[in-house]
Amino acid sequence: MAKDVSRTRDLGSIFRYIYYGKTQSRQQIADKLCISLPTVTHNIEILISQGLIYKSGELESTGGRKANAYSCVPDARFAMGIDITRHHLSLVIINMRMDIIAKKRMRCPFSDTPEYFEHLRDEIDLMLSTSGINRDLFLGIGVSMPVIVARDHKTISYATVINLSDNLYERMAGYIEYPFLIFNDANSAGLAEGWASDPKEAMTYLFLGATVGGARVSDRKIIGGDNWRFGEFGHMCIEPEGKLCYCGQRGCLDAYCAASVLSDFTNENLGRFFEELAEGNNPGFKRVFDDYLNHLAIAIKNIRMSCDSDIVLGGIVGAYLTDYIDTVRAKVSRLDPFENGARYVKTCHYRVEASAVGAAIHYINRFVEEL
Prior knowledge:
The two termini are 15 Å apart. It is globular, with a radius of gyration of 23 Å. The longest helix is centred in the C-terminal third of the chain and has 25 residues. The protein folds into 3 domains: 62 residues, Orthogonal Bundle (Arc Repressor Mutant, subunit A); 131 residues, ATPase, nucleotide binding domain (Nucleotidyltransferase, domain 5, 2-Layer Sandwich), CATH 3.30.420.40; 150 residues, Nucleotidyltransferase, domain 5 (2-Layer Sandwich). It is built from 13 helices and 15 strands. α6 packs across α13 and α10 crosses α12. The chain is of the alpha/beta class.
């Protein structure tokens, strides 16, 4: 577990300013935080002694002596993210800079059984052992799942994609020896994207994965809504009396834009679908993809009308849409009554393991904010 850090009144404020600003001088810190230079110097010495920051170089001179620059130590702390889906299990370890320093993805169908949780425990221990990280610097584990989770991040309030029995958190706790919490997969992926983007701008994330979901991210935080269900775009109706959704309703976006709508044509291999699409030898694939994008454009237009922010396409399908973003924007633009070009539609930074990274970010963020 992470050791306690010696504190002064201003220690956390100085650390956060360095962490979010990437590189800062003592004078910049003093001016921005209205703290005396001797106090800044004292706290910087503490942060260096605790292995949280380091002297990273010198800033450009403004006429006098060059000022020392200080930055956060990337490997000062670590966190793990786990993404549990119906058919796969992914694990990542990230550092303070959100670098993925270890990752593993395997086909492992979810089963709410002791055997599954024993396997999960073994994979956690194996990754921590092989990564070589100091476990004293390990903060905890965020678990991403296709479920709706209450504010305590322990209570599952809705789950139909995977079969769960009651008290999942308590049963998992018998196999995981580290602090852990459970998060919605789309919210986790959106949080990862929010940290990779400009944190000052609100962003709506559309998760195009095994299921369709989303998140609203502002200032590196998820906006959850009254019942922590903001962003359940997969159950937005786009075709009245249309295809049957797993929720029991008809015409939901999930029935038209889940990854399986494409991957079912290539034996669940989405990469292969896009390879064949790019080769252009199968007109049937082109028709399927065009229909997919038509429904996606309707959803994007509706989300834009509701949220009035940039919309980032993520999830496993979003990772493939960079080459088709102009087509997506053109389809959205034809539906948008206010704007031309739909430049607000973007593709994701995190192409792989976004949900696992976002789940891990919780512990990094908590460490930074509570220091």
